[in-house]
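Let us work through a complete example step by step.
Step 1: write down the sequence.
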Amino acid sequence: DTILDLVRKEAAEKYGINIYTDSVIVHTSIDLDAQKKADEIASGSLINLPNKESYQLGTTMLNSQTGEIVAAIAGRHFSLDDEKPINQSLETHQTGSTIKPLLDYAPGFDVLGYATSHTFADVPVDIYGDGRPVNNSNGQYKGDVEFVEAVGQSYNTTASQSLKDVLDTWGEDNIKEYMLRLGFNK
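Step 2: predict the structure and record it as tokens.
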């Protein structure tokens, strides 16, 4: 259903074609093995997610050389038979924690000289100076943690502190330029 929905939308938007009524042959770049793995992830059979009914997910996997879509997940229970199907792979979402390695940590290597041996303080941090500290999602803190744990556990406190340190040293304009060079747009 995910791929059919993507093909249907692209054919209609780019070419004015209705794949259900027009006589067309559609070629895709879908890698069937990658799509099978994506479907297993979405179903929860490949990765056991606790309380998986509370999770929604969507993703689009690209060939990094060509930019072609090789697999996609439209959602945990996506079906074209739904009255108003919402394809999560096409929806605009906030980056959430996926941006932390690029925005918070990578500039730390480039600007502050971080190494994988760097240690962070995993403690509530009031980086904005307004009395509202940044907390971890589970409300727990580990004290001093190594870089690998901070990134691997996606601690909000360490990522925020890293970003604050980079901003204090390098400035907001340089961070914006850094992200543009990585391919993000304004």
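Step 3: interpret the result. The radius of gyration is 21 Å.
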